Amino acid sequence: MAEVHPNVLLVEGKQEVRVIPALIEANGINWGTRTNPVVYLRDYDGYHKIVDSDVIATESQASRLSALGIMIDADDNPQGKVSDKLV
User: Is the pLDDT of residue 6 over 60?
Assistant: First the structure.
């Protein structure tokens, strides 16, 4: 079962899980601890998994969820990735 956290950020991969905490701390925001971070990062191992409408619906309905974010990298055709899913 996935961890319950009020703030969740869905990310494409393990690289984001390593980089995002460092970026947050570099901008003066306390990341928290490993067991109680400011936001829980959930790795979905790829773009196609993270943008699946069932995944997003399930994540957004989690109990005690206050905020849900989705981060998509800009490595390959970022405009195409976003516009395909916003239609």
Answer: yes
